[in-house]
What we know:
21% of the residues lie in helices and 25% in strands. The chain is an alpha+beta fold.
Amino acid sequence: MPVLSESEEQDGSRFSRRQLVKYAGVGATLAAAGPIVGSGAAWAHEDGKSEGKRGDSRGRVWRAGDHHVHSEYSGDWDTSANPPKFVKGGDAVYPIVTNAIMAKNFGLTWAMCTDHGGPNHAKVNLEQAYPDLLRSRRLVPEVLQFWGMEFDAPALDHHTLMIPRHDGEAQMLHDLESRFAKLDAFPRDPARDTEAKMVEFLKYAKDLRQKPLVIAHHASRSATGLGVWGQDTPREFRNGNNAAPDVYVGFEGAPGHQAAPLNGGARGSYGSHPTYGGFDQMTARVGGLWDSLLGEGRRWWITATSDSHVHWTRGGSDFWPGEYSKTYVLARQDYADIMDALRNGRIFVTTGDLITNLDVTARGQGKRAGVGETVTVSRRNRTDVEIEIRFRPLSGPNHNGDRPQVRRVDLITGQITGPAAGLDADTNPTTEVVARFGPNDWHKQGKDYVIKHTLRGVESDLYARVRGTSTDEAEPLADGKESPWEDLWFYSNPVFVHVR
């Protein structure tokens, strides 16, 4: 990628599409993808502040993003040298700016570079990758681009490590990666690959003035059966969340590598036990691990990502950021508010652009709460709680040229009963689908479709969450080699009801 002059770095706004293509090195790919389209977001400055804010009085609207995207700095290592030599592009192949251009093209307003670690990779991130991120921010300012990595979590599979946008972000990641990433030490240090080290990392991160976010990736990819866990276990999630509840906040509900079946692979690259409708079994199974964590009252959220390394048209397993999976956050177009939304569960996820807006609201005794929030009602007279579901379908074709239709929406509730009997608990027997809705059950209001359902005589704490699908499946089925475009789902994060 050409090196930009100082004046070019300071004025990325004057670059033409042709120049952007030259810097990205993806002219043919962009031509195949079609014209770069505006995301509809407010213009964002380098500091993440926005002009012309739209939406409610706080400027918050649903904004699509992706917190798990790889660049050419997910490389390989020449271990014949000492220390090992980093080889750019050995795993993922695209420059950081390419990912940003494609994220914009597919409707994202925020994204995150999450490259793999390795021996001394903290130094590579600091000295090579971070300057490229700064250039990409200037070249594609419409997409807020977070700094971080795919953290080599001690004793666990990979995790997002998202760094708050601030002047010390580069040094902050270097500090965390060099201290705690299990693969950064050379030679390898077994003491860095223990659950105790992971808890130490989370406690350290919790005490930082600028708190990062940690979200587990492809949590069941190493599971060998339904509830037969691999690298990531219920015990580790609970211990980590107990150590840093405002840092360690969730896992991918829909993992990346969703395009793998288009090249004969397993959806999500889940080779041992499949995904269900493109979603990890921890999320897709009603009354499963996610519900077990929510049933304890934990604020534990799900997201959806691309895990983009190599596009499927070039033999990879991936879609571009935003091409298939989207994580929507209710936020202003600035770094801090997007992180706040991720930290506090103002999130819904969708695949195939089945929907573009989803609001789930609980109302009782004149009070209300949305996703990630809690409405508190008194126990008197066995109060009723009204759940309103408001969703907006895609108005045109998605990125496969289809016009997906929502065939059904499910309302799911579970009781909040306090800490589970054991750290290994992975079910919540109180969770159930309390109502299923088809097209005859919702009415149109403007661009949205609205469903209302009343939970009668609520006497104890509960949570409510929503999912929807383009299929006729009562429950998401185990995935085979079908096209991912034929099997679309969306999921909300929960809204909580507290009874006092």
